[in-house]
């Protein structure tokens, strides 16, 4: 099933983001042209989680506030030759306190982005999603991987492979809308959104195919806006024009997907790790649906991935600010 919403005349082509040059290079270059965004970095207590925001700051992308045990952060900086002299450090006793303090600073208007350091994801997200003190909005919180796959011409968004374990249809609506909003607001055009399942036909035996069809109909009715949706699509039909041709699928999305929406976290997690390990993809990560974007990287992520995550967050923040100004005018 195919559905198109938004400006039909602005469909994202391969363009500069599909060139042989790294897609991340373009994102980072664009973010450098914007004013740096104050970013609350929670518990940057190992080399990668400290070096990432420091290099993003050196590039002029963010202005970090480092939240964590001050002595430990200073020790990491000293051991790896990192200069933290020009940055504010908010001292906390341990990782749980770092997460709570980071969220509090966002509430106080001290930062526009929250960034995960070397603590566990659960520790940070527990504070972000708290019903009393967290950063919830009316929108379901979800995660998007921003993937640079060397063998694929498009920048790929993959969602949700980190937050929602078994999302229902209403959750999936928000997951899709969060990803579309990110794609459009960072200036990538109108995304082609593939709702993935095991097959490309609707069958009651595979519930995710019914969800996919329903999501496309929700887009037809204006419940999802800003993207071109098609689903259900099997993974090969979503990314391979030849596979789509062989199956006889006539679709603007099939073979050219830019956002991949997985049926559940297990499928998404395995797909993301397959692309990373077997296709040598880079993966940046962002949590959406909260009051501010949350840079949520793995402890194994490279400094480059962390910088790309910061770049996307900065572009998103500036777009949201610009849109609010337009709405208020």
Verbal overview:
The chain is of the alpha/beta class. The protein is 41% helix and 18% strand. It contains eleven helices and twelve strands. Residues 4-20 have low confidence and may be disordered.
In short:
This protein has 329 residues and is of the alpha/beta class. Helices cover 41% and strands 18% of the residues. It contains 11 helices and 12 strands.
N→C terminal distance: 38 Å
According to CATH, what is the topology of the domain at 1-33 and 139-289? Isopropylmalate Dehydrogenase
Largest pleated sheet: 12 strands, mixed
Number of helices: 11
Average predicted local confidence, pLDDT: 91
Strand proportion:
15-25%
- Going by helix content, strand content and strand pairing, the class is alpha/beta
Which residues form runs of ≥5 with pLDDT under 50?
A: 4-20
Please compute the radius of gyration using only Cα atoms.
Answer: 20 Å
Instruction: Sum up the overall morphology in one term.
Output: globular
| Percentage of residues in helical conformation | 40-55%
Order of helices and strands: EHEHEHEHEHEEHEHEHHEHEEH
Per DSSP E runs of 2 or more residues, the count of β-strands stands at 12
CATH A-level architecture of the domain at 1-33 and 139-289: 3-Layer(aba) Sandwich
Q: Class of the domain at 1-33 and 139-289 in CATH?
A: Alpha Beta
Q: Tell me the name of the CATH homologous superfamily of the domain at 1-33 and 139-289.
A: Isopropylmalate Dehydrogenase
**Strand neighbour order, sheet with most strands:** 1-9-8-10-7-6-11-12-5-2-3-4
